[in-house]
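Hi P.,

Sorry for the delay on this. The queue was packed all week, but I finally got your sequence through. Input first:
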Amino acid sequence: MTDVFISYSRRDAEFVQRLQHELEARGKEVWVDVEGIRDAEVFPEVLRRAIESSDAFVFVISPDAVRSQFCVGEVEHAVALNKRVVPLSLRAVPDADLPDAIRVRNWIPVGDGEFERGMERLVAAVETDLEWE
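Then the structure:
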């Protein structure tokens, strides 16, 4: 099972690459679509299977991500599976634009100089079973 599935807009790919490398450096197995989908593969099904086989679902909040039908669908699938959903706030988005399942959770800020502290909080959130706390 993968530790973390990252849901994001391709416009935030540079940030997500950094995020992936930092998580892997901390011993986490990370699934990111650019490496997990083969050419010509039907990607929505691949994304669903990857979410199903992950422990935690990380959603990178940005205006582009909340406008993406694919990202919103990923959130809905993760919630339906009762995955641990961890929102990372990269760029500001009006609350009304956020999927409900993201809006109601405590976000971890990772933009504008908050990356290192955000990484610590993200790893702790991924490793914490809120049901048993």
